[in-house]
Write a structure and sequence with these properties.
about 80 residues, 3 helices
């Protein structure tokens, strides 16, 4: 019984890690494609997960943009002024 619980916990951690990796890199498109091949409740669950993956993907790239603003210069530097 304890091996089953341990194996179930490890499987859950692996699935969660793969989900986060796919969400960060690809967004929800890949998850939505997998969900379209299924039917019923599983399809709804995959579409829900795809929406959450899109939210994660957008928020991470928004944070990257906010963090990179100090390094981007919006003004053109004038080379004549010394």
């Amino acid at each position: 019984m304890f091996k089953f619980i341990r194996n179930l916990g490890c499987l859950t951690i692996i699935i969660f890690t793969v989900f986060l990796f796919i969400a960060l890199i690809f967004g929800g498109g890949q998850i939505r494609q997998i969900g379209d091949k299924t039917t019923g409740f599983v399809k709804k669950a995959f579409h829900y997960a795809a929406d959450r993956a899109d939210d994660i993907h957008k928020s991470v790239f928004k944070k990257f943009e906010e963090m990179s603003k100090p390094f981007k210069s919006d003004e053109k530097k004038d080379t004549n002024n010394k």
